[in-house]
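Propose amino acids for all 156 sites.
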């Protein structure tokens, strides 16, 4: 008598719950991760004997790096009403502004902060002359004829 062998039953694993958990974890980590804040480039300043203090508020800080990159930094102070009281909340912004779009970025920042802001230029000692000339010409085009140049205090 011939005996037939037992038929093997194929095991099937349902992968749907594992995929659901994987995507839930992915969404959770993406939503709770704090992204790296923009790096503020280090700038080596030009030495000077001037001891004039910069204003604490209402300034637009324009930074020119040694690689001729231009960054605009400003603090926008907003007032919010919390539980019936007004609270001022300072918020710091950094913008990369290529020299071709610098005038548009500067006008946009001045429109946000108001026209009574002072522009402070912090340029690296190795920044090229051409970029600084374009920067000053652009500021004149948007009616900024006075600005402060940040320097390093030279002792002696």
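Proposal:
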């Amino acid at each position: 008598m011939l005996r037939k062998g037992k038929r093997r039953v194929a095991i099937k694993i349902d992968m749907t719950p594992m995929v659901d958990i994987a995507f839930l974890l992915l969404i959770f980590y993406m939503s709770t991760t704090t992204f790296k804040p923009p790096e503020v480039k280090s700038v080596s300043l030009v030495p000077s004997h001037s001891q004039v203090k910069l204003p604490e508020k209402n300034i637009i800080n324009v930074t020119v790096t040694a690689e001729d990159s231009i960054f605009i930094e400003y603090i926008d102070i907003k007032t919010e009403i919390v539980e019936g009281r007004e609270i001022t909340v300072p918020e710091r912004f950094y913008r990369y502004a290529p020299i071709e779009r610098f005038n548009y970025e500067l006008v946009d920042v001045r429109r946000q902060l108001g026209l009574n802001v002072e522009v402070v230029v912090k340029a690296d000692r190795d920044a090229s002359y051409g970029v600084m000339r374009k920067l000053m010409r652009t500021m004149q085009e948007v009616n900024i004829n006075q600005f402060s140049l940040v320097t390093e205090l030279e002792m002696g």
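Residues 47-153 form a domain with the Nucleotidyltransferase; domain 5 fold (CATH 3.30.420.270). The first strand starts at residue 47 and ends at 48.
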